[in-house]
Amino acid sequence: MEIINRRQRMFSIARKLRRDSKTVGFVPTMGALHAGHLELVKEARQRCDSVIVSIFVNPTQFNDAKDLERYPRDLTKDSALLAEYDVDHIYAPDAEEIYPPGFSTYVEVEGLTKGFEGASRPGHFRGVATIVTILFNTVRPDIAFFGQKDAQQVAVIKRLVADLGFETEIVVVPTVREASGLAMSSRNERLSPDARDLAAVIINSLRAAKMEFKRGERNAAALTQIVLSGLSKEPLASVDHVAVVDAATMEPVERVGDTETLIIAAVEFAGVRLIDNVLLNRGQ
Ligand code: PAF
After folding, report:
1. DSSP 8-state class, residue 183
2. What is the pLDDT of residues 43-100, one digit of tens each?
């Protein structure tokens, strides 16, 4: 397993893999790897000849300098984990390699980036769309893997790939959860062990709404209310948003119909912002 820092080196490896007709699976990450990332890597390993994981804490997607500063970084630990999962290459460039002086081109996906995470974190999706474009142009993956937990990011990347004509297939992997049900996230580390267990209230409330959906409830306001009422029972939880949305456009719906629909939640939990979602309807 080689750790690559230079974009030129990554280019030439990617070029050789293509010349040798190897399928390339790509898992973009910001490091601080947990079981959720490793699930993406496993999926890539199963489907592709060569697996490339990028580790890059992307400054342009942080709207809060403190958040960027305290983002956990441990390349040695991450590389050791990835070696166990039989990854072929790690691409871990420095910020200057990606954003050299004079950098001034950004990718903006309009519309579906405005609400929810986009509203709470202005500029976040512009940073994500920009780095994903740069990484896809360097690695040229056949398939790239993303986690369902970041539902809006998934919608943004699918839109980006369709609009800019990338050949990369996007595979979305179900959310990996802690024993309590809490969605895996590097942010979970910031919670005390007690708060971490209590944070399962988020998925439990979402699941309660899904249960009602299965019993026939189609009204978005009623489903949202079930989640809000579950969350209101936990004093550590302060709700940012709960909504029933079309999975592709992130537009709120009034009634759950035939298109793929999610119920999403963002909660400030003991001072840590956590997000999660459940799929109500796969779409037909
Ligand atoms: O989901 C993430 O970790 C990041 O947003 C991504 C896709 C690696 C881009 O920096």
Report:
1. B
2. 999 999 999 999 999 999 999 899 899 888 999 999 999 999 999 999 999 999 999 9
How far apart, in whole angstroms, are the C-alpha atoms of residue 265 and residue 214?
19
Q: Which atom of ligand 1 is nearest to the CA of 150?
A: 1
Helix, strand, coil share of the chain (percent; to 5): 40, 20, 35
pTM score of the predicted model: 0.97
Q: Dump pLDDT digits (tens) for 173-192.
A: 999 999 999 999 999 999 99
Pocket test for ligand 1, best of 99, 131, 148, 156 (most atoms within 8 A of CB): 131
Q: What is the pLDDT of residues 228-267, one digit of tens each?
A: 999 999 999 999 999 999 999 999 999 999 999 999 999 9
| 124 labelled catalytic | no
For the chain, domains (ranges, CATH) are 2-173 (3.40.50.620), 186-277 (3.30.1300.10)
Q: Which residue's alpha carbon is at the smallest distance from atom 6 of ligand 1?
A: 29
Q: Is 29 in the pocket of ligand 1 (CB under 6 A)?
A: yes
Phi and psi torsions of 257, nearest 5°: -110, -135
- What whole-number distance in Å separates Cα of residue 220 and Cα of residue 280? 11
* Ligand 1, atom nearest to 58 Cα: 10
- Gap from CA of 122 to ligand 1 centroid (Å): 16
